[in-house]
Amino acid sequence: MEGKMKAAVMNGIGKMGFTERDIPTPAPDEVLVKLEYVGICGSDLHYYETGAIGDYVVEPPFVLGHEPGGVVVEVGANVKHLSVGDRVALEPGKTCGHCEFCKEGKYNLCSDVIFFATPPVDGVFQEYVAHEADLCFKLPDNVSTLEGALIEPLAVGFHAAIQGDAHLGQKAVVMGAGCIGLVSMMALKARGVSEVYVVDIMEKRLEKAMELGATAVINGRTEDVERRIKELTSGRGADLVVETAGTEITTRQAIQIARKGSNIVLVGYSKTGEMTLPMSLVLDKELTFKTVFRYRNIYPMAIDAVASGKVNLKGIVTDIFKLDEAQKAMDYSVNNKADIVKAVIQIWEEK
Ligand SMILES: [Zn+2]
Ligand SMILES: [Zn+2]
Fold this sequence. Notes:
Blueprint: E1 4-12, E2 15-22, E3 30-39, H1 42-50, E4 52-53, E5 56-57, E6 67-75, E7 87-90, E8 93-94, H2 100-104, E9 114-115, E10 128-132, E11 136-138, H3 145-163, E12 171-175, H4 179-190, E13 195-200, H5 203-211, E14 216-219, H6 225-232, E15 238-243, H7 248-257, E16 258-266, H8 279-284, E17 288-291, H9 299-307, E18 319-322, H10 326-335, E19 343-346
Parallel strand pairs: 12-13, 12-15, 13-14, 15-16, 16-17, 18-19
Antiparallel strand pairs: 1-2, 3-6, 3-10, 3-19, 4-5, 6-7, 7-11, 8-9
């Protein structure tokens, strides 16, 4: 498809703008996708506010956004499983396929990954993208491209649940009720965990957690988390804790509320990357720490969970902005963290 497209670009810290680029031509193994919705992720906001995450430094103009859903409008010569008009969720990371991690199926650990909106690779706050067809997953009729965009964060939630060996009969706790906390809670429930308690300090997020199926919520600012979990689990403690808040306080609480012999899954990155934790207690309880880096082999399962009604993915969206409002969308998201759970940019309207 010949022509120009609009892309929202980050021109500097706190500065969004627009640019016109050529609509990309898909390679033989790629499809061209007309993007309909792209989620705004915490990492996008972090790049926008500070210009970097660790060693990844933004060189403006840079395109943010790595949570896309859209419609296939052109198909490369070698692509068999997709056709024009298919609605798809795009997995944002293209890996090498040859290294030991790729071969073991742990491709999220590949060092040669090319991932949307991770400098220097541009993201997808733009009208079209050409992407590896194998990383585009067809959505069933009852799953919208808005939900398609949100499969990306949901995949993190499922990876956390799987890493923690979540299963039927457990009582689990999720620390943090931001987007990743909520999708983790829903993934735990989808995998059969019957009781999931959610801890946060923002009322609006706790309300959202209840609305989306939490068994109970605890406000860590006003309640004694340890005591409440004791009450809720008849003194046993949590069979599984998923930590998404990335703070020392909540990680310590996770250790305190975990039942002996249980798993704690660390998902949230802390600000400094370092923490002081009560390790003797960890040993006394023989706790197992698991961690999460993105996800692997999860998209088909996550899409099925949404299609079959096990996960109310749309429910996490609190704000939708147009591509033209990119500046407002980013500023509003940065300045209203207590009110926004998940914001999404609508690129083209779904028909
Ligand atoms: Zn994300
Ligand atoms: Zn690899």
